[in-house]
Amino acid sequence: MNTDLPRSFKLITLWLLLGAVVFVGVQWWLHRAQQAQFQLSGGAVEIHRGRDGHYHWPGRINGHAVDFLIDTGATGTAIPESLARKLKLRSIGTVRSNTAGGVVTGQLVRADLELMGGVNVQRLSVLALPGLGPNPLLGMDVLGTLRWQQSDSVFRIEANAPP
Fold first, then answer.
1. In the 8-state DSSP scheme, what is residue 133?
2. CB contact at 8 A, 139 and 74
3. Cα–Cα distance between 155 and 163 in angstroms, integer?
4. In the chain, which ranges are continuous DSSP H helix?
5. Mean pLDDT over the full length of the chain
């Protein structure tokens, strides 16, 4: 009785293993690239511009990990409406807002923000917007309380500045 596996099964297994190795390698590379964009350096947070042209600041909203996009042109912090629903954030009012995409109506909610590097904001009024991309926008309601500067594709925040 021949117990050898069919040749096609061996090839499929080999390709699946090769695909898994490539997938893990790409995930590791992406993780390393994200780490290189964010650094704590000499009492300051340094965020290097990402390949997409944005500054990404890792953090949490009510304990849920998120990747904030720094938006110095935004008056307030905004999150996707779907994230507000997922976090069960209760609406405290309806707000119309001018965005890059036009006027939109969103819900005002309160949330606790924690940004890597030690910046915490409790019970911040945040706008939950329909159609907002996957990343929350960190606006001037938070950034305006910090000492920061932007130059040479680096966004530098003084870590000891009060939020």
1. -
2. yes
3. 16
4. 7-37, 81-86, 140-143
5. 87
